[in-house]
Amino acid sequence: MKIYNTLSRSKEEFVPLEEGKVKMYVCGPTVYNLIHIGNARPMIVFDTVRRYLEYKGYDVNYVSNFTDVDDKIIKKAIEEGVTAEEISKRYIKECKKDMAGMNIKPATTHPLATQEIDGMIDMIKTLIDKGYAYEKNGTVYYRTRRFEGYGKLSKKNIDDLEAGHRDDAHKLKVSGEDEKEDPLDFVLWKPKKDGEPYWESPWSEGRPGWHIECSVMSKKYLADEIDIHAGGEDLIFPHHENEIAQSEAANGVPFAKYWMHNAFLNIDNKKMSKSLGNFFTVRDISKEYDLQVLRFFMLSAHYRNPINFSHDLMEAAKNGLDRIITAVTNLTHLEKSAKDSAMTEDEKKVIDSTKDIYGKFEAAMDDDFNTADAISAVFELVKLANSNSSEDNTKEYITALKESIVTLADILGLKVIKEEELLDEDIEALIAERQQARKDKNFARADEIRDELMAKGIILEDTREGVRWKRA
């Protein structure tokens, strides 16, 4: 199995540090709002990597954090007149809902930055003791030049970086904020501003810099040295570069053996931005499509290629996923009425031919997780099943065909077994119960019912005339 390693800029044979085990860290979202579809790409991609590693028999310790203290969270809290903790808790809950919709397995651990402050203070102390960090007026900075090999992940040359920082350095001097020994040094700890959340530290009441958070959480829940560190390519510099500098200086061992990064997502060939009005949250998408369609769409391109999101491409993804679901649904119907006798020789030959298709699927995934080619293998199985199944087949055979599709779809995290559809009267009954719950001011139950219906593809719309509903 080969993985493209950003560190070496080449595909490398995957050999874990400890046989049969994989330690994997994926940078999670900053929770100040609903997650957008750009956040969804690494979530889906690296969940699929994890699923495939598990299918191959590895025991995967998968850690993905929530950044729950940050300038954006504080800004949102001030705007709403609530605490930063209230904002982060609300959006972690919403994020987990979206992740469930995209069928992302919960991480082995989902650490929260705010619960790991002690570890961050300890690592900063170690960096100061080793001469890699220094304190100025309550702020602690990392001495970037002190770390040999700075820039090895992003392939940036430190002297070029400095040239780019000269203007910044001049601005800082003019504004009197020039406390750094070197313009390239970055913050490990910063003092609080009025009204901000803070923690006690030997240097000031304040909070950690963003980069130190991941270094500490990766060390605590995985090890000093891990197998795979992953995230979006926008994190290569400075975030991951700074993590390497911190972790390797503090721990004295290489930080991560393989670095994996997914490419950007564009909207109708343009960069997604609020100013262009092409900014979509995962929740927006869920109003029009089952989130399984979003997952299928994300996996239909190689994770290292930029992917273009458009209505037409989502429609194509919906049709593609429907083809798989329809094939499985047909096999489920045949299974119910198929005769209970041993597989015939002809049937055995067809089942044998699925092994070749499995081989193609594994070859695609073994080649740096080429999910686009892996999906083609699933379509081959669908075609095989569609043209080689009828009411004359045995139950054992139909079940084996169905399992062959479901197993591969499951590695990709695609749910292809249709849940029994809710009948109209069941939906009406749940809506009536929700209306009653709202009258009784039991809003928790009302929300629960709405979420339950949403999970089954039923979308509610509260209008003046009452509640309308439709199937997604």
From TrEMBL:
Its EC number is 6.1.1.16. This is Cysteine--tRNA ligase. ATP binds at residue 274. The keyword Metal-binding applies. Binds 1 zinc ion per subunit. A motif ('KMSKS' region) lies at residues 271-275. Zn(2+) binds at residues 27, 214, 239, 243. Residues 420-447 form a coiled coil. It is found in: Cytoplasm. A motif ('HIGH' region) lies at residues 29-39. Keywords: Aminoacyl-tRNA synthetase, ATP-binding, Coiled coil, Cytoplasm, Ligase, Metal-binding, Nucleotide-binding, Protein biosynthesis, Zinc. Pfam families: CysS_C, DALR_2, tRNA-synt_1e. Residues 360-423 form the Cysteinyl-tRNA synthetase class Ia DALR domain. One of its GO terms (molecular function) is cysteine-tRNA ligase activity. Belongs to the class-I aminoacyl-tRNA synthetase family. The keyword DNA repair does not apply. Transmembrane segments: none annotated. Its cofactor is Zn(2+). Its main location: cytoplasm. Monomer. It catalyses: tRNA(Cys) + L-cysteine + ATP = L-cysteinyl-tRNA(Cys) + AMP + diphosphate.
